[in-house]
Amino acid sequence: MWLTIDLRSETAIYLQIRDQVIQGILLNELKIGESLPSVRQLAADLGINMHTVSKAYNLLKQEGFIQIHRQKGAIVNAPNSYQASEEYYEQLKKAVKPLIIESSCRGISKGYFYKICEQIYRNIGLLEKGG
Amino acid sequence: MWLTIDLRSETAIYLQIRDQVIQGILLNELKIGESLPSVRQLAADLGINMHTVSKAYNLLKQEGFIQIHRQKGAIVNAPNSYQASEEYYEQLKKAVKPLIIESSCRGISKGYFYKICEQIYRNIGLLEKGG
Amino acid sequence: MWLTIDLRSETAIYLQIRDQVIQGILLNELKIGESLPSVRQLAADLGINMHTVSKAYNLLKQEGFIQIHRQKGAIVNAPNSYQASEEYYEQLKKAVKPLIIESSCRGISKGYFYKICEQIYRNIGLLEKGG
Amino acid sequence: MWLTIDLRSETAIYLQIRDQVIQGILLNELKIGESLPSVRQLAADLGINMHTVSKAYNLLKQEGFIQIHRQKGAIVNAPNSYQASEEYYEQLKKAVKPLIIESSCRGISKGYFYKICEQIYRNIGLLEKGG
DNA sequence: GTGGTCTAGACCACG
DNA sequence: GTGGTCTAGACCACC
């Protein structure tokens, strides 16, 4: 199972699931039209409650990443369903801004910040090839 | 008053205060050794609970940005007190990673992501000159 | 085959079938006394479960639109079998009311709402001529 | 309490709450900036579970009708937050179409359908004056 | 006090 | 089998 959660993390479990499904889509571990595990199945595998998984799936549905079919369960959407919108750009900016401000305040230069981003992008790229 | 909060925001008020104090330090609106408004004062000005301001100040203290004196109140520390640590790098990475993953998944290229960051850096620079 | 279903729709499949059979009757694609496809046939054509088709047919029977013969299968009834009753008026009102309320709340005027209805009626009329 | 639910109804409780809150906004029983009852309060008043109310409130938030403040609870938004969008028009059409088709099939003329709508609009108008 | 999250277990609609 | 709804009761963060 490619999906793991950290019960000790600050991040809510349902958000961890959401983030990892998005990562799975990006890394092509989850292909368009592919099914996610059923709510009950994933809950059992992760040792958590059904409703927590359901909440994650509903959020992903609302954000356009997946569809939820009556019987077939959750299906990965095509990219056009979750293409970045104006609204998302604003949201992204709002999320990045405080990180840049704090890191700058703590003495991290723009160049160094980009170096960190570069590491993350490289990391993703490697995973994409490996996966 | 340079500090404003948005009650409608998703972000907790005490975190909004924290973020803006850090921004104030970065932009040199708050200089080393300078005092922050008293807990009572700020709470009254913003029309919020004292506990909330207190929580923000305690977090800032814990993160090394300020000291809290019984008499003089909250005082801005010198940069060496909050210089980025290994721990902070890891934390920063963990915060940036899901943003990069989601934005990539939504079709935002690395170049475009950096363009957004660049805007934010420019924005801060302008404020520095202006302030 | 004039009947198509959308597996991605929120609407249950058996209700989609029901709605389209009613539309077929209205547009005279299905004439009085004409047979509907057999449960097996339709299920195979649509690639869905027999139970689902069966459920739709039973609902249509219960609502007076069709009769189900052991040998001849499902047969379209004459209009007097499904003429609007007092009960149906109430049901229709209950269905329309929340739509009018929400649309009014969202700033859609009565005139505009009627304009939307007019479009739908026109659409049906065109289909009637075309079909 | 202006809000009542029907436990025997086909409509899910959380949707009944949603619909009635929207009605309350339309009829100006709930004014801009006004607070809805707290999740716990309303649940207790209606004799239902907290989560059911919470689900309704979250849906209303998502649809732009209300904001959910950390401490102040749910607050009614200004109309511009839930103005009809293109997307909503399509959704409305899709909801109205099968009602028009079935009613036409059952022998209800366009004129009579509008008469029914007229009744509903009048009903709302009277309530607006009365409330 | 508020809402948010999570658990545990039930019943139902759909296919 | 699937997801959707509802209940009951717990703990937490925020203010």
Word description of this protein:
4 copies of one chain form a homotetramer. The first copy, chain A, is mainly alpha-helical and 131 residues long. Chain A has 2 domains: 13-81, Arc Repressor Mutant, subunit A (Orthogonal Bundle), CATH 1.10.10; 84-130, no CATH class. Chain A is built from 5 helices and 2 strands. In chain A, strand 1 (66-69) and strand 2 (73-76) form a beta hairpin. In chain A, 25% of the residues are buried. The mean pLDDT of chain A is 93. Chains in contact: A-B, A-C, B-D, C-D. Chain A binds chain B through residues 19, 22-23, 25-26, 65, 79, 82-84, 88-89, 92-93, 95-108, 110, 113-114, 116-117, 119-121, 124, and chain B through 19, 22-23, 25-26, 65, 79, 82-84, 88-89, 92-93, 95-108, 110, 113-114, 116-117, 119-121, 124. The structure holds a DNA duplex (15 and 15 nucleotides).
